[in-house]
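Appendix C reproduces, verbatim, an entry submitted by the partner laboratory led by Prof. M.T., so that reviewers can inspect both the input and the predicted structure.
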Amino acid sequence: MDNPAALFDPPFEVITPSVHNLPMVFNSPHSGRVYPPSFLSASRLDPHSLRRSEDCFVDELFGGVVGYGAPLMRAHFPRAYLDLNREPYELDPLMFSDPLPDYVNTRSVRAAGGLGTIARIVSEAAEIYGRPLTFQEAQSRISALYLPYHRKLSALLTATREKFGSLLMVDCHSMPSALYSGASGKSGTRPDFVLGDRYGAACSSIITDFVESFLARLGYSVVRNKPYAGGYITQAYGAPQTGTHALQIEINRALYIDEESLEKLGGFAELCRDLMALTCALADALPLMFGPQAAAAE
């Protein structure tokens, strides 16, 4: 069995600014696009089909934040291989040839839908694997990739909070433009942005209001918490009462890529500029929105 960490060089990275002068951390857990041969050979799907679960180029969309003084953390392994935005052991027992330990969350709605820590499907229903996995295969990915990633992210957030008193983590994602309605077969289109703050539990509503208003002024359609209120990362790290605000941003892929070819569109550069404008506006506004706690740390 492969050592998962050895398949990626490196599995993840933190791109750090020369001076960390913004009270922000950006995280891109689903933009990894390295597909090891052993994973491809175990899959029923071709590489292009596997990429449909990928947040294509989201790390590049937000890459400019480093030049403004905020770190960007990103995974190189793909979401189809291991999903960092789930609990560490959120697994579908039907995927495995052996019984799962009692500590595994086998009742998760996400895992039952095929989108657990080790995903069963991509897109709406395309099965990834041609055979059942062993729990040891899942355990090796979690131990070698998932746990080190989250340790690093946690340390980065702690260091940022200690430096500034409070911080905003932006969890960066993308979403398909099509909105499916399950068994009804009805479909529609998603807005340009969905902001997820766990209904205010992970991020101050003042910050979410600011981001929503800023994007709307740029002409984008923006909704909050539906259908994405924020995943495990937002839930696990967002604690406004301790000065750590976490906001998930979902970007409609049709804004910047062709969803069939997965190639960048002409709107990619404009979207990058708008996201950097948002970053600059937040940099100016956050100290006031954080309040006395942040001011005392400066």
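Residues 293-298 have pLDDT under 50 and may be disordered. Additional entries are available on request from the coordinating office.
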